[in-house]
Amino acid sequence: MKVVGLLGQVAFPGELASVPRARRYVRDLLDTAGHRQADDALLLVSELVANSVRHSDSGRRPDGQVTVAVANHDGALHINVIDAGSAEHRPSLRAGTDPGSCTGRGLWLVDELAADWGWHDTPAGRVVWFRLSGG
């Protein structure tokens, strides 16, 4: 039997100031849940929320929002970052990403640290998600 439990979900304005707010929100949820990989989760949420603000319509519209949803799924941590999507940008790994670079490493970090990740479009926008094992 699969056990799925939503720990929390919240929408933030589509602005860079929402990155630390999203990180604090997830940190508070994970502190309560006692998740072992909280540091990885916080880094990846920061990267994905920043990507949403920079590359989706959520960051270009005055009323744009980015939603973060955190759930337990069979002992793993599953996090969705939901935005308005973009016709010009699709999530993809950059070829030849430099691990020492200060920019352009968001999805590379997700790919390196998450047990699994992906994205899909919905009628309302785009969901980029990742899973960390061993809650």
Provide the fold topology.
Blueprint: E1 4-13, H1 18-33, H2 38-55, E2 65-73, E3 76-83, H3 106-113, E4 116-122, E5 125-132
Antiparallel strand pairs: 1-2, 2-3, 3-5, 4-5
Identify the CATH homologous superfamily.
Histidine kinase-like ATPase, C-terminal domain
Count of structural domains:
1
The gyration radius over C-alpha positions equals 14 Å
Principal-axis shape: globular
Number of strands: 5
| Helix-residue proportion | 25-40%
Unreliable spans are: none
If helices are DSSP runs of H or I spanning 4 or more residues, what is the number of helices? Answer: 3
Strand arrangement in the largest pleated sheet: 1-2-3-5-4
Structure description:
It is a single chain. By secondary structure, this protein is α+β, with helices and mostly antiparallel strands. It has one domain (4-132): 2-Layer Sandwich (Heat Shock Protein 90), CATH 3.30.565. Helices cover 31% and strands 31% of the residues. It is built from three helices and five strands; from the N terminus they run βααββαββ. It has helices at 18-33, 38-55, 106-113; strands spanning 4-13, 65-73, 76-83, 116-122, 125-132. The chain has a five-stranded antiparallel beta sheet with strand order 1-2-3-5-4. Helix 1 (18-33) runs antiparallel to helix 2 (38-55) and helix 2 runs antiparallel to helix 3. The longest helix is centred in the middle third of the chain and has 18 residues, at 38-55. The two termini are 17 Å apart. 30% of the residues are buried. The model has no long low-confidence stretch (mean pLDDT 88).
